[in-house]
Amino acid sequence: MFTVRVQAEDFDAAAEHVRLTAGRTDIGAVVTFTGLCRDEEGTLAALELEHYPGMAEAEMNRVLAASRARWPLDGAILVHRYGKIAPGGNIVLVVTASRHRAAAFAAAEFLMDYLKTRAPFWKKEHRRDGTSGAWVEAKDADDRALEKWSGLLD
Amino acid sequence: MVKLVYFAWVRERVGKPEESVDLPASVTTIADLIVWLAGRGEEYAYAFENGPLIRAAIDRTHVKHDASVAGAREIAFFPPMTGG
Asked: What mean pLDDT, rounded, does chain B reach?
């Protein structure tokens, strides 16, 4: 099973893991990554995630296709939420399954690195002091993280 | 007519999420379009003041600023992505 979802609702990482492996006896490794909303030392009330409907799903599918071309994956689930998310809440989920762990680990890291820099989502901060309006700035470190995968996507 | 869509602080600065426009013949690339948009008024000048930083997509696929806009149905402008 290979699935991409963009949704406002929360997700259950354990349930997605079960969905991916149900009825399968050939899978030897599942890697689950969950990205959470941090409270930034108690200053953040919530993150608001804006997305580009249609392109978000399309880009996540392109990144997923690139991962399947490079690693022998037996399944993957990508879920990205949008809307207002409080500290501690889930933002993004990547689950990869393969015969062996190396492919599952590497593909999960690749998928996260590319989702962060290519999937059209933007975070706006709402602060506990009542101020809001600051858009999170893209990090050079996120762009540098792509260098180890050079050539897989434009 | 081509549909333009804006996201995050580009949307906030322009003051609207989308619009349909007739492009002048002089606009053939994304870079041309950014220059043309920046000349449409104060809010556009502010949104596109740092043109090279702005990302673009044509029909929901990322493109570089030298990409042709010929045949485009929907062109999007937005800041670097910060999801994940």
From this structure: 97
A135 touches chain B (CB under 8 A): yes
Q: Which among A116, A135, A137 is the nearest to B83, CB-wise?
A: A116
Query: Which residues of chain A have a CB within 8 Å of the CB of B80?
Result: 117, 137-138
The predicted-structure confidence for A68-98, as pLDDT tens digits, reads as follows 999 999 999 999 999 999 999 999 999 999 9
Set out the domains of chain A in order of their start, with CATH numbers. Answer: 2-129 (3.90.1170.40)
Instruction: Flag whether residue B7 sits within 8 Å of chain A, measured between CB atoms.
Output: yes
Mean pLDDT, to the nearest integer, of B66-75?
97
Phi first, then psi: what are they for A101, rounded to 5°? -70, -35
Three-class DSSP category at B5: strand
Indicate the pairing of strand A2-7 with strand A44-51. Answer: unpaired
- Low-confidence stretches of chain A (pLDDT beneath 50): none
| pLDDT for res A151 | 64
CB proximity B40 to A under 8 Å:
no
* CA contacts within 13 A on the Cβ side of B73: 3
Inside any domain, residue B84? no
Q: Is B83 in the A-facing interface, judged by CB distances under 8 Å?
A: yes
Domain that holds residue B33: 2-78
Provide the token pair at A140.
Answer: 């050079």
Contact between chains at B61 and A117 (C-beta distance less than 8 A): no
* pTM of the full structure: 0.93
A123–B82 C-beta distance less than 8 A: yes
CB A70 within 8 A of CB A63: no
